[in-house]
Design goal:
mainly beta, 4-stranded antiparallel sheet, globular, 11 strands, 7-stranded mixed sheet, 4% helix
């Protein structure tokens, strides 16, 4: 398994930007797809984005498409989520996840999760 630690969350006004980071340690980071999920209070955890192990393929949830960008730097064992044009409904705890099987990752059934970082968007 790979160990993941998120950072970069915080309080931002609507329309603003944040960049989340996901630092990985353990087994070879470059062999895993990496994704981001989020969970708002009282709601189920939902898929946000995924990037494949080489960084050439990305998939986004419709709710964030065009506003969020997922990327990775395998040399630094780090993945990122650039969030622009933030909306109130983006408020949630954001989790990083890594898996060698993308279907399992997107389904939220992976074993390797970070502890989460809080993102709060204010009006």
């Amino acid at each position: 398994q790979v160990q993941l630690v998120e950072s970069g969350g915080g309080l931002v006004q609507a329309g603003g930007s944040l960049r989340l980071s996901c630092a990985a340690s353990g087994r070879t980071f470059g062999s895993y797809d990496v994704g981001w999920f989020r969970q708002a209070p009282g709601k189920e955890r939902e898929f946000v984005a995924v990037i494949n192990c080489t960084g050439y393929t990305t998939v986004y949830a419709d709710s964030v498409k065009g506003r969020f960008t997922i990327s990775r730097d395998n040399a630094k064992n780090t993945a990122y989520l650039q969030m622009n044009s933030l909306k109130l409904e983006d408020t949630a705890v954001y989790y990083c996840v890594a898996d060698s099987a993308r279907q399992r990752l997107v389904a939220g059934r992976s074993e390797s999760w970070g502890q989460g970082t809080q993102v709060t968007v204010s009006s």
